[in-house]
Amino acid sequence: IRFEDVKFHYDPDRPILKGVSFEVPAGKTIAVIGPSGAGKSTIARLLYRFYDVIEGRITIDGQDLRDVTQESLRAAIGMVPQDTVLFNDTIAYNIRYGRTDATEDEVKKAAELAQIGHFIEALPKGFETQVGERGLKLSGGEKQRVAIARTILKAPAILILDEATSALDTKTEQDIKSALDLVSANRTTLVIAHRLSTVVNADEIIVLRDGQIAERGTHSGLLARQGLYAQMWNRQREASEVEELARKVANDPEGFVKRGLPAAE
CB–CB of 208/134 below 8 Å? Predict the structure, then answer.
């Protein structure tokens, strides 16, 4: 995948991408991160052809996306979004939506790889369990694992993870991260993320700011630069530590009081 001097706006008076160029080599994982409003999710929307670029071009294997049909493009792409859409049907139906001709064994294998197989098997109706309207009978983490299983079943050449864990708490995110690592292994993967803990193993991290690439490199290299990425990393690490402390206090308030730490903290 290549982005070549891509410029885009929804409103001509407010440019979103201002000449963005980068490459996602076959089989590699590239992460795009940045503050809210930097243009991260717009990159995913352009790649999926919800919109076409204003200037520049996006190519896959040298083909301009504007020259291929949306059907053939989307057949090659699997997306795990932040807000998973589940249909008011069974778990099996929602996983099989990734590839409607999949066998029962293939659906179960996909669930196992997404680390939700044991959970489903333990339900009274197993894979025939109804998920409810928009999946309301499942937790956020369970819905996300169903979406991952659906993508595994589709077996796309290109994978887009668009803020795939940002709606989850830190612990659930860590549990799901291993499933995402599994599905993205040796697959051309673009990760759009706000939480930096999900991108530390990416082959390259691209830091967007105000629609332009501010920094790029590996996790360790960007930390060493002490720039925007390092600032974001430190802020998020501090927030995670506070969240972890709050969780411990909630689970054992008396223990914290005994150790001299007021439960309110």
Answer: no
Sign of CA dihedral 123, 124, 126, 130: negative
Q: What whole-number distance in Å separates Cα of residue 64 and Cα of residue 57? A: 7
Instruction: Note the pLDDT of residue 249.
Output: 79
**5-14, 158-167, 250-259: least confidently modelled range:** 250-259
Query: In the prediction, which pLDDT does 108 show?
Result: 95
Report the candidate in 147, 150, 152 with the shortest Cα–Cα distance to residue 164: 147
Length of the chain, please? 265
What pTM does this model have? 0.84
The pLDDT confidence band at residue 262, using thresholds 50, 70 and 90, is low
Q: What is the DSSP string of 220-261?
A: HHHHHHTSHHHHHHHHHHHHHHHHHHHHHHHH-HHHHHHTT-
55-60 and 2-11 beta bridge pairing? antiparallel
Question: 143: which 2 tokens?
Answer: 């819905």
For the chain, the straight-line distance linking the first and the last C-alpha, in angstroms and rounded, comes to 48
Closest C-alpha to 78, from 149, 154, 24:
154
CB atoms within 10 A of CB 24: 23
DSSP β-bridge partners for residue 7? 18, 55
- 141: confidence class by pLDDT, cuts 50, 70, 90: confident
